[in-house]
Write a structure and sequence with these properties.
38% of the residues lie in helices and 11% in strands. The protein has 359 residues and is α+β, with helices and mostly antiparallel strands. It has two domains: 23-119, Phosphorylase Kinase, domain 1 (2-Layer Sandwich), CATH 3.30.200.20; 138-358, Aminoglycoside 3'-phosphotransferase, Chain: A, domain 2. Helix 6 crosses helix 9 (304-327).
């Protein structure tokens, strides 16, 4: 792709019905905090909404992003604006790919809930496919993959103590807590048409390793949470969505990252679940990513099957939790109807990894 032929950057769209934002109230609050703003903001909204709602406020002199919890949120821990804001504010001086934080509003009277505002990082965001106009060569796709993993490694090398993030996690034993937590969530989200999965859970619980290290982990590392340079779509310039960031084991994060990583040679179930264009010619395979990451981090795990199985099982739970809400008519979105099949498939794939580890 020619660097002079810039593809369109990622943009927000029309605000969804029932999710309108009071731009005037936000503007007044920001100005009261000393933020200089010119004009009336053009308010648009980014697609999604399963997690926190995300809006763009485009002023004459400032391009801002606002994040707030979904309407009706009860558990603050699930959509904690203060935590998400504070993590990014602490990381920004030592990890430049984080957006610049502008302000945190804890006064629910302003728009009906807490929210925070940050500067927008302008660039490209790959989703299921590359953005329109982005056609990379196999060599460029390969470089993109290395840049993505290098940016993850950079995060894992952050000195979290010096950044003041000691309270972000719960200390050692992260792997054990994750296995116990996700097994409990699976049991609570099971429906009659999904596999019990008890053999997978037993195996995971019996093979939990000690944490290889403690570092800042993003916990949702996918291409659609990264911003790429429009002039060089292989270069990562921003990392978004820090809602689940914590202190934890870096190999656990790598396992969850690769559960989303579809390869061109994968079967139709994996390719059908694909949320990022990692199947394109030149993209690294999961095995290549593991080898590269471990070489750079000087790690030599002899039990990679555990981390791979954990990533697959965790994704199965996430998908089943969504299906559970559909099954019990808590949501009517027809896209969720086949999710029980995907959950079953991920349990089956977890079993395959375990069988291969035993061979």
């Amino acid at each position: 792709m020619s660097t002079t032929d810039r593809p369109p950057v990622d943009r927000a769209g029309v605000v969804r019905a029932g999710e309108e934002l009071d731009g005037a109230a936000v503007t007044a609050w920001l100005q009261a905090q000393g933020v200089a703003l010119h004009g009336t903001p053009q308010v648009t909204q980014f697609a999604g909404g399963a997690s926190n709602w995300t809006y763009r406020l485009q002023y004459e002199n400032r391009d801002l992003i606002l994040r707030r919890p979904p309407s009706g949120t009860k558990a603050k821990s699930a959509h904690d604006m203060n935590r998400e804001y504070s993590v990014q504010k602490a990381l920004k001086p030592v990890y430049p790919a984080v957006a610049n934080m502008v302000g945190l509003c804890r006064d629910a009277a302003v728009i009906g809930c807490e929210f925070y505002v940050m500067d927008r990082i302008e660039g490209l965001i790959p989703r299921k496919n590359m953005p329109p106009g982005v056609h990379l060569t196999p060599e460029q796709n390969r470089r993109l993959c290395f840049n993505v993993i290098d940016k993850l490694i950079e995060l894992h090398r952050v000195d979290w103590r010096a950044a003041g993030l000691e309270k972000l996690g719960k200390g050692s034993g992260y792997a054990r807590r994750q296995i116990d937590g996700w097994c409990d969530r699976w049991e609570k989200a099971r429906t009659w048409n999904v596999l019990p999965g008890r053999d997978v859970m037993r195996w995971l619980k019996a093979h939990v390793p000690d944490d290889v290290a403690t570092c800042v982990i993003h916990n949702d590392w996918r291409l659609d949470n990264l911003v790429f340079d429009a002039s060089d779509p292989t270069r990562v310039i921003g990392v978004l969505d820090w809602e689940m960031a914590t202190l934890g084991d870096p190999l656990m994060e790598l396992g969850t990252t690769l559960a989303y990583w579809a390869e061109a040679s994968d079967d139709r179930f994996i390719l059908g679940m694909r949320r990022q264009p990692t199947h394109l010619p030149g993209m690294l395979t999961r095995r290549e990513i593991v080898d590269y990451y471990c070489a750079q981090m000087k790690l030599a795990p002899d039990n990679w099957a555990f981390y791979e199985t954990y990533g697959l099982f965790r994704l199965a739970v996430i998908i089943q939790q969504i299906y559970y809400r559909y099954h019990h008519r808590q949501t009517r979105n027809p896209a969720f109807r086949p999710f029980w099949l995907l959950a079953n498939y991920l349990i089956w794939r977890s079993r395959r990894v375990i069988r291969e580890a035993r061979a």
